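F.,

This is the one I mentioned.
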């Protein structure tokens, strides 16, 4: 269920680990063995319930137009338009396709939506679940967070056709999210209490902790050598920039209330959301300003968002409205 909460949903991950320990234990006492089996059934039911409660989401695509300092958003189109979880949009660097995570038949795989044809194609098709798609810096492979059969979460890569899986970071786990700085350096969100931001060097196999208690969005900052992340606090959190070499950081903007997601435009502007609003951070007024409000029912609660490399399109994730009781 990675990506439906924090990759994986922490409660589900913990339950799976408990089941694994119970299953691997040996009991000579038949009563204890039966008790173990009953407990496993209860946990399986609990995990299934948690998975069923994950909200359905759809990905919308809308044109972005800029006129001077004004940003306009065109009519959004639902790319996925189905019941279930479709989330975590990522634009390919050439802007021709959009990768995303889709949950079907009890697990998740990575799909690619071709903007020219308007069609989606499945990329990964494995017994495990893959989340958080992103292309490696050379554009030749796809990196994902993979939830392995024993619930281990690690960073993997695949060929662009979904073949040739490889572990990228063997000992760093459980990884939830990532962003590539270059071919040898990747910044990762590592689950824990609290979650940590780490700079992983592939050649050394090391991962230095740079920040603690962070949010789920890691992005490269356009126009400068830096990575942005969310530093959580009691009031929500700050979007911060961090120097990838020195580790020095600075506050950029406080997140709008009720969200933990944001995106960058190629011009270096911050975008975020609040309910059905798209917001832009004004460096002059030091506050969030409304770009537009969406009237589509499934965009009443926007979560994740992504902007195309050319800045001419925006992908928005809308959460399905709850069914009436």
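My design for it:
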């Amino acid at each position: 269920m990675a990506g439906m909460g924090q990759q994986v949903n922490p409660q589900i991950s913990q339950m799976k680990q408990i089941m694994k320990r119970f299953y691997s234990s040996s009991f000579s006492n038949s009563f204890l063995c039966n008790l173990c089996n009953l407990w496993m059934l209860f946990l399986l039911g609990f995990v299934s319930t948690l998975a069923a409660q994950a909200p359905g989401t759809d990905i919308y695509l809308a044109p972005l137009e800029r006129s001077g300092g004004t940003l306009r958003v065109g009519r959004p189109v639902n790319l996925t338009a189905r019941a279930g979880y479709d989330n975590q949009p990522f634009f390919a660097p050439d802007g021709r396709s959009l990768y995303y995570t889709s949950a079907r038949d009890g697990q998740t795989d990575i799909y690619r939506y071709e903007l020219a044809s308007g069609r989606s194609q499945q990329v990964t098709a494995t017994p495990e679940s893959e989340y958080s798609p992103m292309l490696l810096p050379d554009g030749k492979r796809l990196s994902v967070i993979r939830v392995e059969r024993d619930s281990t979460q690690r960073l993997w890569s695949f060929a662009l056709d979904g073949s040739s899986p490889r572990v990228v970071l063997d000992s760093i786990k459980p990884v939830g999210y990532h962003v590539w700085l270059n071919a040898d350096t990747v910044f990762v969100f590592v689950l824990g209490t609290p979650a940590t931001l780490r700079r992983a060097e592939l050649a050394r196999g090391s991962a230095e902790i740079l920040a603690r208690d962070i949010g789920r969005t890691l992005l490269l900052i356009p126009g400068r050598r830096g990575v942005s992340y969310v530093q959580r606090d009691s009031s929500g959190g700050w979007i911060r920039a961090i120097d990838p070499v020195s580790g020095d950081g600075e506050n950029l903007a406080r997140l709008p209330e009720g969200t933990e997601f944001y995106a960058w435009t190629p011009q270096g502007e911050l975008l975020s959301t609040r309910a059905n609003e798209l917001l832009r951070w004004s460096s002059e007024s030091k506050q969030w300003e409304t770009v537009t409000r969406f009237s589509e029912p499934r965009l009443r609660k926007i979560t994740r968002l992504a902007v195309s490399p050319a800045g001419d399109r925006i992908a928005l994730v809308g959460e399905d409205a709850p069914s009436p009781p």
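The first strand starts at residue 57 and ends at 67.

Talk soon.
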